Amino acid sequence: MNQAPRILSIAGSDSSGGAGIQADIKTVTLLGGYAMTAITAITAQNTKGVTAVETLSAAMVAAQIDACISDIGVDAIKIGMLGSAEIAHMVADRLAGLDLPVIFDPVMVSTAGSVLADADTVAAFERLMAIACLTTPNVDELAALGGDEVLMAKGIGYIAKGGDAPGETVIDRLVLPGQEPQIWTAPRIETRHTHGTGCTLSSAIATFLGQGAPLAEAIEDARDFVRAALLAAPGFGEGHGPMGHHAVR
C-alpha cells in the first residue's frame, strides 16, 4: 500500500482560498500527504482583509479532532488560527498525550492586518508552545510572545520567520533548546502576493515530518516550497494575493 502521511490541520477557514485550512489542504496534498481538518472558525475574507468571523464551539472542534484521530489516525498535526481561548485550551488537552510532531503557527493577525486572536487566546498559546515540537512566529508574533529571551528561557523550540522584517535578504532562525541556532538566508521575493505564507510553511513542515524527515530538513524543504509558490502566484485580487500552490511540482 502507498500510504500517505496523515496530516491534521486545526485552523480557520479562508473563504478566498489563500490561507488557513484551504492553504493547508493544498500544501499537504501537493506534498504527498493526506489532509484532514478540524475547522475552528469560518471567515469571510479576501486579499483585502477579513470582513466577518464566526468561531465554532470548542465541543465541535473537539469532535472533529476525535473523529479524525479515532478512525483514520494521524502522523503529524498543524495548528493555526484557533478563534478563542476555550478552543486553544481544548486543543492542548486533546494533544497533550499524543506522541507525534505538532507544528504550531501562532496566528494573531492576518496578512492584511485583521486581528484573529484576542489577549486571552494569545495567553493560552503557552500550553500549545510547550506541546509543539516547533512554533513558527513571524516578527510581530515573536515580539507578542515575549521575544527570543522569553521563548528560550521556557525551552520552546521555534523558527523566527524573517519574511516581515525589512531588507533584501530574508533570514529565518531555528532555535532549539540546548542547540546553536540554525540560520537560513535567501534573497527576498518582491511581491504583494503573500497571503497564506505562514499557513503554507507550517503545514509543509508538518507534512515532511509526517513523512519521517528530520526537523531541519523538513524546514528547509518547506521553505523551498513556499518560495516556489510565491514565484508562481497567479496574481489574483487587489490586495495581498494568494500564492500559486497549484503550480508547484
From TrEMBL:
EC class? transferase
InterPro entries documented for this protein: HMP/HMP-P_kinase_dom, PM/HMP-P_kinase-1, Ribokinase-like
**Pathway per the UniProt entry:** Cofactor biosynthesis; thiamine diphosphate biosynthesis
Keyword terms of this UniProt record: Kinase, Transferase
- A GO cellular component entry from the record: cytosol
* MF-aspect GO terms: hydroxymethylpyrimidine kinase activity; phosphomethylpyrimidine kinase activity
Query: Could you tell me which SUPFAM superfamilies the record lists for this protein?
Result: Ribokinase-like (SSF53613)
GO biological process per UniProt = thiamine biosynthetic process; thiamine diphosphate biosynthetic process
Q: Gene3D superfamilies attached here?
A: 3.40.1190.20
Q: What is its EC number?
A: 2.7.1.49
The name under which this protein is listed is hydroxymethylpyrimidine kinase
Q: Which organism is it from?
A: Novosphingobium barchaimii LL02
